[in-house]
Specification:
about 325 residues, Rossmann fold, homodimer
């Protein structure tokens, strides 16, 4: 382990921009660790961001997320695009475990210099996904990724959070998992821009597709001009359905640009990111407030009856900025 | 119900200071409701606070808290002191229920103009006890109470919070409830300044007293000059032990003043109160941040790559003050 002092932020940022996977990895580790130098990192990265297309990919365990990701990477690489893969584990404070398996399944691309693969833990105490993921995306964006795939297990609220981070959200299902009906309950219908029924060679695939299409048609998405999420079939293990999937993603991209939707989603993503950083910063400063003297001073005024607790709180807040 | 607009804060504060129980009750209702006019109320009350002695009273259900409170009120009233009673229910977001019974047991004092009785819910979403109780204490303090008894059921962390609010904390136990041993586990030994074994006419009272004294002697409180919490016996229903209890409370008060401990506790109490208000205020302002234009403006800069999310968060924070 190198010590903290060894990190030369400008050099690291320069190396990451030049395409060093090692530098990219180290910068994302700074994000994971909520390193205080992130401020400097993000300032250096800012002018080089905003190019990457972010595609979220979510689904229950077992639907074939990593295989589908791998297939997508093959297709995107064939187009000459640089691809970043961020596998976010919302359930664990530490990387590894389940994600190790994902990495193995992505082994096809592990030696491709045009592909970055990174798994990341979302540490609950820092605001989790909302805090860390956008910053990791910035790193990959500035490193020259044309497309970033954010893969997360669809558990709890994490898939909704990932949808909030992506330009396009791809929801994966598999036949015979009862996913069709559950999707409606879980709110997956609201977040999906493209639905994929993977393992479509299995029995029940057509029924799952039909169920999904029916549920989507029941939604509010049939008005003219609105995006109606397509439901595709893939067998990712055999790369079947890749072209249709890429085409659907292209159509969604074109639709977004047509309607100003991409700009709207990116503004919303940046707003959430800034909010999460501001909240985390305020929490940290309030934690330090006892050490900074302001609280002690205003408290003495309150005890003496010379000021009221609201006015004192106002002074504490002013002292935070 | 009178509408919000009818509340004339300066008049209400004046009436409360003149001793109107109705005005006191309405001000505490403003506290319970986290009314925005509390700022004005607290500013008006500030110069008139700091006189009341705050005694916390806690114990498990069934130990006789209300009967002991009633006995204490009798003793304090005999000394000519004005008494406020604040019964805080930490487990419920609404007043009533269990507290209704307390009010009935305090019926002896209900018509005494020198006694204010008030139960209060601690609403979790506002920071609970830490936010509301100190402000209710200010109201009673400014209304001329010489002593305020804060009564709370000893469940979870609430007794520790009440101890943080009080000048003196009185912990109540009863024989045969296994309280002696549990007290040590629950951390009650750390918060009690005076221990009372109530229902001391029951079997096992002496054993409970002995257990408690033993556990206290095991603590760190035997150094010279430190306060060693006395363990008293009462039968509150028959007013037995009242004089000894009042005397123990007096001794603790004298010890505190001797050591500057009262000033220290009050400063700590005010600091927690100011922190709780500041945090609640920051949370509320962050919630409003999307409406105030600053977030939208800085977010556009982030999307354009002209600023980084940390610098943007800094601007949002600056906009909060």
């Amino acid at each position: 382990m190198r010590s903290r002092r060894d990190v030369d932020v400008p050099a690291l940022v320069e190396q990451a921009r030049a395409g060093s996977p090692r530098a990219v990895a180290r910068l994302i580790t700074l994000v994971e660790n909520a390193d205080p130098r992130l401020r400097e990192v993000m300032a250096a990265l800012a002018p080089h961001t905003g190019q990457a297309r972010v595609i979220g990919l979510t689904g229950s365990p077992g639907v074939g997320k990593s295989t589908t990701t791998s297939m997508l990477v093959t297709g995107l690489r064939a187009r000459g695009l640089r691809v970043g893969i961020l596998a976010v584990d919302p359930s664990s404070p530490f990387s590894g475990g389940a994600l190790l398996g994902d990495r193995i399944r992505l082994a096809d691309h592990a030696l491709d210099p045009g592909v970055y693969i990174r798994s990341m833990a979302s540490r609950g105490h820092l605001g989790g996904l909302a805090w860390a993921t956008p910053q990791a995306l910035r790193v990959l964006d500035a490193a020259g990724c044309d497309v970033i795939l954010v893969e997360t297990v669809g558990v709890g609220q994490s898939e909704v959070e990932v949808a909030g981070l992506a330009d396009t959200t791809l929801v994966l299902l598999a036949p015979g998992m009862g996913d069709g009906v559950q999707a409606a309950k879980a709110g997956i219908l609201e977040i999906g821009d493209v639905f994929v029924v993977n393992k479509a060679d299995r029995e029940g695939a057509d029924a799952t597709v039909r169920d999904l299409r029916h549920m989507i048609s029941l939604g509010d998405r049939t008005e003219p001009g609105l995006w109606r999420p397509p439901v595709l079939k893939t067998v990712a293990e055999r790369r079947e359905g890749l072209e249709e999937l890429l085409e659907a993603l292209d159509r969604h991209e074109a639709w977004m640009d047509d309607r100003g939707e991409r700009a709207r989603r990116r503004a919303e993503r940046a707003a959430r990111e800034v909010e999460a950083i501001a909240l985390s910063e305020l929490r940290s400063r309030m934690g330090d407030v006892r050490g900074n003297g302001v609280l002690q001073r205003v408290t003495a005024e309150v005890v003496a009856g010379r000021t009221d607790p609201y006015a004192a709180a106002e002074q504490v807040i002013a002292g935070l900025t």
